[in-house]
């Protein structure tokens, strides 16, 4: 992950907290934002593949990539909003996923 991810996510979360507080409703909205962004990925992919014959090709793979990045940002903000250990949580899950695929740890690619 980008080294800049967590400091920027912390700033975004702080700005949202200042604007909206961080009560149960606001956290729920941040969680729902992840789903909204995922829907935009699906719409962009449908548009990139022309699956809607009425509309044809309306997006590019670049658009899909941009929407996927929005999902990652929204998820990081939501994660940061529910735990002060967000980087460690993500790191742990990332390495667990790699272990399930039997991938060697970084630097151990012999």
Task: Give the low-pLDDT segments.
Answer: none
Q: What is the radius of gyration? A: 17 Å
Give the overall average pLDDT: 94
| Helix percent band | over 70%
Describe this structure as you would to a colleague.
By secondary structure, the chain is mainly alpha-helical. It has a single domain, classed as Helix Hairpins. It has 4 helices and no strands.
From the structure above, extract its key features:
single chain, 110 residues, mainly alpha, Helix Hairpins, 4 helices, 72% helix, flat
SSE inventory with pairings:
Blueprint lengths: L4 H16 L3 H26 L11 H22 L3 H15 L10
Helix pairs in contact: 1-3, 2-3
Structure in a nutshell:
The protein is 72% helix and 0% strand. It has four helices and no strands.
């Amino acid at each position: 992950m980008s080294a800049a991810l967590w400091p920027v996510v912390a700033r975004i979360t702080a700005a949202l907290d200042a604007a909206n507080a961080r009560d149960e409703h606001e956290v729920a909205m941040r969680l729902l934002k992840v789903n909204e962004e995922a829907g935009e990925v699906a719409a962009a992919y449908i548009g990139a593949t022309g699956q809607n014959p009425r509309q044809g090709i309306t997006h590019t793979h670049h658009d899909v990539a941009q929407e996927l990045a929005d999902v990652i940002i929204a998820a990081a903000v939501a994660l940061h909003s529910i735990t002060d250990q967000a980087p460690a949580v993500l790191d742990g899950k990332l390495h667990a996923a790699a272990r399930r695929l039997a991938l060697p740890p970084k630097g151990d690619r012999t």
